[in-house]
Amino acid sequence: MTEESVSSHADAQTQDASAINKRKRLPKIILAIFLVLAVLGIIYYFLVYRFYESTDNAYLKADVTWVSPRVAGEITQLNVKNNQEVKAGQVLMKLDDRDTQARYEQAQAITQLKEAALSVQQQNAASQNAVILEAQAGLDQAYAGLKQAQAGVNQAQAEVARTQKDAARYNALLREGVTTNQRVESVQAQYQSAQAQYQSAQAQYQAAQAQVKRAEAGIGGAKAQFGSIQASREQLVADVNSAKANVNLIGVDASSAQVVAPVSGTIGDLAVRLGSRVNPQTRLLAIVPLEKTFVEANFKETQITDMHVGQKVTVELDAYPDHEFTGHIDSFSPASGAEFSLMPPENATGNFNKVVQRVPVKILLDRKAADPVLRPGLSATVKVDLRT
């Protein structure tokens, strides 16, 4: 065997031994790497991961306002289009309001007619009130005449009593021969005159009583007539108020011919065109306030144990993977999402399977000037820092 062959054989043995040693060290290296990664994972879990809750069941939302007309009509003017920005109070479209304007003018005419009737009634009431005052004056005068007649009756009655006593006294004196027949006859004449005056006073008193009754009947009739007028006045006032309310109601319909934007935002889902016929409660379009978008994240019920309002949140959007958004928890839904579905689950059955429920959590974003436009419906991944 030559020296070169011996040398090459020795090199081959050395290479084989080195390869064997490498193969023996490889499992140890892999095990060491695995142990290091496991230790790092444990450290990361205890120091970082367990203080975060995350979910990819999250989406951008916004308080979308659906615009509907208050009245029916044909669109005669359309001032907006899809994806257009509008301001609150801006006129979006106009409806044909000719029939509404006609009804408004008719209601105004009816109101004027009823107000005129009320004015006539008020004049009648004033006239009747004057009649009552005149009748009251007549009644007062009748009462005064009755009182005067009563005084005359009393006076005549006293005079009859006095002359009766004088006649009796003079008759006694005549029997005693103290006075003369002529004097007795004179006293008798005075007594008869007093009786005649008493009868006349009684007749005047009865006439005064009749006058009082007539005056009382007159004022009673006048008051009854006034009461009837007042009752009709209340009806007329009610009619006038009803007519004015109808004018206001139709006026609201007339002003509703202009459809205005209730909030500021961007037009979306425009469902009508110029000339379209619309009815009340028809969805014309949606207004989306893009500057007020928020995130609705659906966390598992087992994840919200340590979550509370105000905790900091990191948000990643699929549409902007290189941009990280921050925010905070604003509120929690009062119930799980299943409770608000059209067909809530009925668990009081024999086929029960426990399913982890999702609780919607509202997250407000900390908006910055450099942030891109956020549109409702975009998918998001949310991570909540439980330490905050």
Automatic annotation (TrEMBL):
Stretches of the chain forming a coiled coil according to its record: 146-218
Q: Which UniProt keywords apply?
A: Coiled coil, Membrane, Transmembrane, Transmembrane helix
Domain of life, per UniProt, equals Bacteria
List, for all copies, the residue spans of the domain called Multidrug resistance protein MdtA-like barrel-sandwich hybrid.
Answer: 67-281
What SUPFAM superfamilies does the annotation carry? HlyD-like secretion proteins
| Span of domain p-hydroxybenzoic acid efflux pump subunit AaeA-like beta-barrel | 294-384
For this protein, the parts annotated as crossing the membrane are 29-52
One of its GO biological process terms is: transmembrane transport
Question: Record keywords: Transmembrane included?
Answer: yes
Q: Does the keyword Cell inner membrane apply?
A: no
A Pfam family recorded for this sequence: BSH_RND
Family, per entry: Belongs to the membrane fusion protein (MFP) (TC 8.A.1) family.
Identification of the protein by name: HlyD family secretion protein
Q: What organism does this protein naturally occur in?
A: Alkanindiges illinoisensis
